[in-house]
Each structure stands twice: as C-alpha cells, then as structure tokens.
Amino acid sequence: MPLHLIIDGYNLIRQSRELSSLDARDLAAGREALLDLLAAYRRARPAHQVTVIFDGREAGDVKESRDRRQGVAIIYSRRGEAADEVIKRLLSREGARGVAVTSDRELQAWAQRVGAAWLGSLEFERGHLRGREPALAEEDGADSSARAGKKTGPARRLPKRERRLRQRLRKL
User: Fold this and answer.
1) 168 close to 99: Cβ distance less than 8 angstroms
2) I need a labelling partner for 80 at 20 to 30 A (CA). Which of 12, 88, 153, 157 fits?
3) Domains in the chain, please, with CATH?
4) What does the alpha-carbon distance between residue 52 and residue 73 come to, in Å, rounded to a whole number?
5) 96: which residues sit within 8 A by CB, 6+ positions away?
6) For 85-143, what is each residue's pLDDT tens digit?
C-alpha cells in the first residue's frame, strides 16, 4: 500500500540544523532546500505521495494555494488558518494511509486518533532525507533482553496496532 507523507514544512525546517540556518538568513531559501530534499526522496520512492504544508496564516492568500514541484505537492494554508488545521484535515481524509511528519505533539496525537502513523521531524530528516539509518525501535516489538536467549511470548509483543504502525513506517 503506498503511503501519503503529510509533512509539516516549517516544523521540519526549524527542527533541522542545516535547514534552520538557511531559514534564518532567508525564509525562501529554507523552503527551497526542503523542497529539493523532498523531491530527491520522491524520486527514490515514487510510489509514495508527498505533500508538504506551509503556514500562510499571517501573510498568506485569502484562499488556500496549491502547487506541485518535481512530484511534491505543496500547500500554503489560507490567511487566518494554521497549517496544523490543513494537516489535520488531510490526515482525517487519508486515515491509515497517512503518515504525519512533525514534532508537534498535538498533530502526533491527532494522527494516532485517526489511525495514521507519525514520525518526528528530526527522525525523518536523519533517516530518510539525509540517508542515515532511522532510529526506529526493535522491529518486532520485543525488547533487546528478550533476544538474548530468553523465551518470549505474547506478553512481550507490542500491541497489534503499534506493530502495524511500525510496519507502515518501515515502508518509508
């Protein structure tokens, strides 16, 4: 099942050391650098849909504006609307297919509520945009002491819902 990555653009920019330094000098430069990274990710994983949402609450247009660049959908929220509201709307529509990329705890909780997965901004950047190994926990949900030769059983497994979420995140 292809996933739909719904990315909180400014959250990811401000969490990243490299992107935030560009953003501090020029807001547009930070956005452009992020879009270039996402375009490269999209080329490597063409099955996944990638949407990045930027906040247009204070200086945005009266209507929500949409654009597309190298396979990455770009949404600027309308004036007076936070990007978080657009992200919540998209996550609600996508359900289990959606993956929120944000460090905002409210959005992470919303993703869980609607059955979507979520990944922290830094974890996504380090593990998927920069090509380093993602810091996901044990694959099957068993703790490391269980792998040392102790018998394991259902009590040591993560709940089924959590295992399914981790399985979706491994597809990234």
Assistant:
1) yes
2) 12
3) 4-135 (3.40.50), 140-172 (no CATH)
4) 6
5) 115, 116, 168
6) 999 999 999 999 999 999 999 999 999 999 999 999 999 998 888 765 444 443 444 44
